[in-house]
UniProtKB/TrEMBL annotation, chain A:
GO cellular component: ATP-binding cassette (ABC) transporter complex
GO molecular function terms noted in the UniProt entry: ATP binding; ATP hydrolysis activity; transmembrane transporter activity
The protein's name in its UniProt record: Putrescine transport ATP-binding protein PotA
Gene Ontology BP terms: quaternary ammonium group transport
Alphabetical list of Gene3D superfamilies matching this protein: P-loop containing nucleotide triphosphate hydrolases (3.40.50.300)
UniProt keyword annotation of ATP-binding present: yes
Source organism: Deinococcus marmoris
Keyword Nucleotide-binding: yes
TrEMBL record, chain B:
Protein name per Swiss-Prot or TrEMBL: Spermidine Putrescine ABC transporter permease component potC
Pfam family name, one: BPD_transp_1
Lineage start: Bacteria, Thermotogati, Deinococcota, Deinococci, Deinococcales
Record's keyword terms, sorted: Cell inner membrane, Cell membrane, Membrane, Transmembrane, Transmembrane helix, Transport
Any one GO CC term of the record: plasma membrane
Family: Belongs to the binding-protein-dependent transport system permease family.
Organism from which the protein derives: Deinococcus marmoris
ABC transmembrane type-1 domain ranges (all copies): 61-248
Principal location: membrane
Superkingdom of the organism of origin: Bacteria
């Protein structure tokens, strides 16, 4: 029996259907990401799990209990918002203590638990500060401490890192993973950032237009995308329709509608197809070439020592063994 | 002339324009002559003593004070939930509702007074409850406006955070929303109280035998007396209003929130 289970969930945003017939299971202690572009229904799904949005149909089960109709304030689900949503008039300590005070936790225990939670997120010395006097990263940690201190049955995070700058985002990503492992808390993580999802998740659920497009471990969705949408999202930048692909490859995957190659899989300087360099971009670890070819535009990485200039002609290969066979859903 | 000084000059001219009448009243209140005169030719503080000897001032001050406090409390009790509903829920016809709720502030006071008179005569209400109801109705738009502004600036996600931590919607409102809009509420309260306390047009229609508000008593007094007592009383009222704002500023830090 899975910890969180969504069965045939239908959600509406206003009058428009936002999520249709969603089925999802999250195991105890698992970290699952809902990944997709804005408007795909991932945040709506999360709000329904939190109880902030009543489903139009379907059931939500948590730890074996049907919580579909349970009010949000009795679900014991921790919530971390993109905007942190700290209480501006309360100190760090009181922000974290909020849920415990509502649960009438005795003073000594309350102090201990708030202290522990602040220690987990590394903010012990900021207990007396107001949110306005904390940095974005610190505010995010307070929001996290506030959500975990109630020992929630499930922790929901809605784009928690997207308001942080790039470096801090990487640090916090590692912190989140550590904390999740340390506490063993089940987490549903909403993001539009595939790197974040790949780095954090036990399992990634890719959503598109209110439906699940594909799900699997990070390795699975990264290395074996099933549809052009997922391939595109996972950085398979060269997606060719099956008609443009050499016959032998097409014959081994008769059901495929598209084939995709990652830019690093394209071999430059030899092969059956010729192309002209439209753009040559230095990216630190490699050069990126944008080619115009009879197959369409192709993106390829080459070592920084590569000499082809913009406008020059060269040949390239799309190795069949590195292709992903896709099927448009 | 340096053109960047223009706004500063306008500022000072406006200040003179605003404070001027107050200075005239203030100086006239200390005149020694038995009739109101500006500038006065002699000095006396007797009119300040006389203010407290006029029975109608004493009783109507208490009436106005009570009426102001009660109508402000009622307007807050109704206006805060109304502002909350307007800012948090997508209601059908929200624009119309908003217009209706803020309309008395746009309609001339005499019209409102006349309308309310008809209304209360038909209801057969007695004087004081009618006054209270009329003032409450009059203050409501101010309260809704000012409190709405505070609520719009407060993101709704902190309420959702509170709810996810175990608070009911009411508890979330009490523990999270109210503390963060208290500046707006205080500003609304001061504005409402002063509006009620100063109110002439509506009260003119609704005051009746035995019940009069201070502005109405002052109007009546002036019909028969033209000594500086009225200037002395005005001076005291201005000081009272300023004092009120200052106290609220100190206690609640109005300017921090509004």
């Amino acid at each position: 029996m899975s910890h969180l289970q969504l069965d045939h969930l239908h959600l509406r945003y206003g009058n428009a259907p936002a999520v249709e017939d969603l089925n999802l299971e999250v195991q105890d202690g698992e970290l699952v990401s809902l990944l997709g572009p804005s408007g795909c229904g991932k945040t709506t799904t999360m709000r329904a799990v939190a109880g902030l949005l009543a489903p139009a149909g379907g059931t939500i089960t948590l730890g074996g209990q049907d919580i579909t109709r349970l009010p949000a304030n009795r679900r014991d689900i921790g919530l971390v918002f993109q905007s942190y949503a700290l209480f501006p008039h309360l100190s760090t300590f009181e922000n974290v203590a909020f849920g415990l005070r509502l649960r009438k936790v005795q003073d000594a225990e309350l102090r201990r638990r708030v202290g522990d939670a602040l220690e987990v997120v590394g903010l012990s010395e900021f207990a007396a500060r107001l949110p306005a006097n904390l940095s974005g990263g610190q505010q995010q940690r307070v929001a996290l401490a506030r959500a975990i201190v109630i020992e929630p049955r499930l922790l929901l995070l809605d784009e928690p890192l997207s308001n942080l700058d790039a470096k801090l985002r990487l640090d916090m990503r590692g912190e989140l993973r550590r904390i999740q492992r340390e506490l063993g808390v089940t987490m549903l993580y909403v993001t539009h950032d595939q790197d974040e999802a790949l780095a954090l998740s036990d399992r990634i659920v890719i959503m598109r237009a209110g439906r699940i497009e594909q799900q699997g471990t990070p390795e699975q969705v990264y290395a074996r995308p099933g549809t052009p949408f997922v391939a595109d999202f996972m950085g398979w930048q060269n997606i060719l329709s099956a008609g443009n692909v050499p016959e032998p490859l097409r014959r081994t995957h008769p059901a495929a509608t598209h084939f995709a190659w990652r830019p690093e899989s394209v071999t430059l300087g030899a092969g059956p197809t010729s192309g002209r360099v439209l753009a040559r971009t230095y990216q630190g670890e490699h050069l990126e070439f944008l080619l115009d070819s009879p197959l369409g535009r192709v993106k390829a990485f080459a070592p920084v020592t590569a000499q082809w200039a913009e406008g020059s002609e060269l040949t390239f290969t799309l190795p069949p063994e590195r292709a992903a066979a896709l099927r448009d859903a | 002339m340096n053109s960047s000084r223009v706004p500063i000059i306008i500022l000072y001219l406006t200040l003179v324009f605003l404070v001027g009448p107050f200075l005239v009243v203030f100086i006239a209140a200390f005149g020694g002559e038995p009739t109101l005169k500006f500038p006065p030719t002699s000095f006396s503080t007797q009119w300040f003593t006389k203010v407290f000897e006029v029975e109608s001032f004493r009783s109507s001050f208490l009436t106005s004070l009570g009426l102001g406090l009660m109508s402000t409390s009622l307007a807050l009790a109704l206006g805060i939930p109304v502002a909350y509903a307007l800012s948090r829920f997508r209601l059908p016809g929200a624009v119309v509702i908003q217009t209706v709720l803020t309309s008395p502030a746009l309609v001339p006071g005499l019209v409102v007074g006349l309308a309310l008179l008809q209304y209360f005569i038909n209801l057969g209400g007695s004087v004081y409850p009618s006054l209270l109801a009329a003032h409450t109705a009059l203050l409501l738009p101010y309260v809704v406006r000012v409190v709405s502004t505070s609520l719009i600036n407060l993101k709704p996600d902190i309420e959702e955070a509170a709810i996810s931590l175990g608070a009911s919607r009411l508890t979330a409102f009490r523990l999270v929303v109210l503390p963060n809009i208290r500046g707006g509420v205080a500003a609304a309260a001061v504005l409402a109280f002063i509006t009620s306390f100063d109110q002439v047009a509506v009260s003119l229609f609704l005051t009746g035998p035995g019940v009069s508000t201070l502005p109405i008593s002052m109007l009546t007094f002036m019909e028969y007396n033209y000594d500086p007592t009225i200037a002395a009383l005005s001076t005291l009222l201005i000081i009272f209003s300023i004092g009120l704002v200052l106290v609220f500023e100190r206690v609640l830090g109005l300017s921090r929130y509004v």
